[in-house]
Amino acid sequence: MTHVGFDKQIELLKREYESEKQSYEKETQITGIGRKVKRGDCWHPVRVGPARYNSLDLYVVELSRSTDLDIEHNFEYGRPVIFFRRKDGQQASDSAPKLKYFDFTATVSFVDGDRMVLTVPDNAPLLELSSSAEDVGCQLSFDETSYRAMFDALDRVSSATTGRMAYLRELLYNKPPKATPQVFATACARLPWLNDTQQQAVDSVLRAKDVAIVHGPPGTGKTTTLVEAINETLMREPQVMVCAQSNTAVDWISEKLTDRGIAVLRIGNPTRVDDKMLAFTYERRFEAHPDYSTLWAIRKAMRELRAQRRHSGESFHQKMNRLKSRATELEIRIQAALFSQARVIASTLVGADSRLLAGLKVHTLFIDEAAQALEAATWIPMRRASRVVL
Q1: What pLDDT shows up at residue 1?
Q2: What whole-number distance in Å separates Cα of residue 8 and Cα of residue 388?
């Protein structure tokens, strides 16, 4: 089944994708290192630190910069990164030198000032990076991941024939709509610390069966209203999902909810790095689980077994399969515990495509600062919800 409106949107998104990709490739070729650094899209040179496996069993490497520390950078969680060095024969004085790019892409896992941690493929040539005679740099790469997630979401929504996804599509997209938003007739909570319009907004959220839209100019207390609406919704539902376009917006609402004593599970790492923010991230909670030390020991045994494979006998596959089975069992147990304890699952819109959220379904999705988002991106988490609050 095709849907004319979504087909058009997919076509326009493809045009934007191709245009941005071409612009990025062209600009990468002609822009000098110094200009990239000043724009905040590049660190050069970088110091390549030690590599290790993190708590989620991803191979990561630590980077730091010691120059241009006064320049604010654009590196943040989830963004793709590529490494480069000058080609042989190029001088440091060359304004736009020819660069050799290393043949792998890394992903920002953590950023704190002038230090960051990148997730890299297991076979990444880190020794070549750290021992290069030329200074090595890294720069932001074209972000294929966000586009893939948006294309996938639009394809799924466009092809939906039944269920809430198809219903919300008809409700929100058709002009005139083929469906009418439904509301509950239930009594709403009285919140005397809100003003009249904030109370009305919370009432609208609680009554909405399908969609609620809350709009307000700056300074009207949208965040306060949103926190109250989420808190009241959690009086009626076991768990909700909260998303926003940017990591900063997700961090802000997550912190406000945490201050209210609401258990938040943050998918993806926060932009502002401190103990309070890190405490509710998935990775930090994963490491704190009682079964984690056992899981880490099993993963270590698996890596050691792989390293000794050439010297092992026929029992290699049997041993490896037993270890994999036990590791998978523990990972599922820890993940299930973390999600069952959380009242709010928080992520960026694109972050809602995380493998950690595979199979997650919630009744209510809140999208903060929805007007800043691409429509295609909002459909990524909307696939997981029965109703949505914009």
Answers
A1: 45
A2: 23
134/5 Cα distance (integer angstroms): 51
Backbone angles phi, psi at 236, to 5 degrees: -115, -20
**Residue 234, C-beta contacts closer than 8 angstroms, at least 6 positions apart:** 240, 262, 343, 344
Contacts 24+ apart (CB under 8 A), 199-206: 201/225, 201/229, 202/228, 202/229, 202/232, 205/229, 205/232, 205/233, 205/389, 206/232, 206/233, 206/236
The amino acid present at 244, given as its one-letter code, is A
Are residues 268 and 304 in contact, defined by beta-carbon separation less than 8 angstroms?
no
Q: How many CB atoms lie within 10 A of CB 16?
A: 13
- SS3 readout for 203-218: HHHHHECCEECCCCCC
pLDDT at residue 29, rounded to an integer: 76
Q: What is the largest CA-CA distance in the chain?
A: 75
Q: Where are the beta strands (DSSP E) in 240-300?
A: 240-244, 264-266
Sequence-ordered list of residues with C-beta below 8 angstroms from that of 255, at least 6 positions apart, any chain: 276, 277
| Full strand arrangement of the beta sheet holding 240-244 | 211-212, 385-389, 362-368, 240-244, 344-348, 264-266
Task: Quickly tell me which residue has 């056992």 as its tokens.
Answer: 294
φ and ψ at residue 107, rounded to 5 degrees: -135, 135
Residue type at position 295: L
Cβ-Cβ contacts under 8 Å for 353 (sequence gap 6 or more):
149, 152, 153, 380
Highest mean pLDDT among 22-31, 165-174, 380-389: 380-389
Helix (H) or strand (E) run with residue 79 in it: none
Helix H or strand E encompassing 117: strand 115-119
- Percent of the chain past pLDDT 70, that is, above it, reads 93
DSSP string, 125-137: -HHHHHT-SSPEE
Does this model's pTM top 0.85? My answer is: yes
